[in-house]
Amino acid sequence: MIVYKSPREIDVMREAGRVARLALDAACAMVRPGVSTAEIDAEVERVIRAHGATPEFKGYHGYPASTCISVNDQVVHGIPGTRRLKDGDVVGIDVGARLKGYVGDNAATVCVGKVGEKARLLVDTTRECLERAVRECVPGRRLSDIGRAVQAHAEARGFSLVREYAGHGIGTRMHEDPQVPNYVDDATLRRDLVLREGLCIAIEPMLNAGRADVYTLDDDWTVVTKDGSLSAHWEDTVAVTKDGPVVLTRA
Ligand code: MF3
Ligand code: CO
To answer: Taking the domain 7-244, which CATH number applies?
Structure first.
């Protein structure tokens, strides 16, 4: 069941999105050789709580931290810990904040120091996929237009799309209907949907430099590429409004 949000609810979601963005920005600013992922996580939790919000990931299906930090071949859901970042790492950071009963969810991928040309292109292309998807968030367009925009750009650059995970509706719960796939096929087209004013979704393309296949590590969370290739992930929370897309995590 899709829960459409009123303009007043969207205003509150913007506040939640603002905190999620501030915390993600703080995390990205800490990225340098030698910093541990647990140190970044602790700062994110501090920033979220300093704004009267709570870290949405902590305790979510037992998840132990406030962020997901996924390095290099890790795709999503990397658990922060003693790992220290080093020059050349590609670091995905995902942050969710709950404020006044609503959730904002966002992620970015940043590079530590100098990275290879392929890594840079992967990170940039994934961000561009998100931007192109956001532009489709207009009443009357379809959910499949989002997936098509992401897929077309990713594949034009020779990258593969992770299919096991998708974006999602978002509101009083982090994961609401509908699922927001990053590709189009017969199954996604059968579940297609006309975008309407008040729909709020998290869009989150995940691209791999190599093959699309992924698996989950023994910690039951960390998703990695099967071939060990680099992966990147960007995410924003977006509202469909009569004036077009409003990126709640950038407003
Ligand atoms: N942004 C991710 C998502 O939308 C974060 C969830 S991680 C979890 O699914 F730990 F909270 F599950
Ligand atoms: Co999400």
So the answer is: 3.90.230.10
* 36-87: pLDDT as tens digits: 999 999 999 999 999 999 999 999 999 999 999 999 999 999 999 999 999 9
By the 8 A CB rule, do 222 and 78 touch? Answer: yes
Query: Cα(12)–Cα(100) distance, rounded to whole angstroms?
Result: 7
Cβ(57) to ligand 1 under 6 A?
yes
Pocket test for ligand 1, best of 45, 75, 94 (most atoms within 8 A of CB): 94
Tokens of 19: 């905190």
Instruction: Give SS3 for 1.
Output: coil
- Residue 239 makes CB contacts below 8 A (sequence gap 6+) with 5, 10, 13, 137, 198, 199, 200, 245, 246, 248
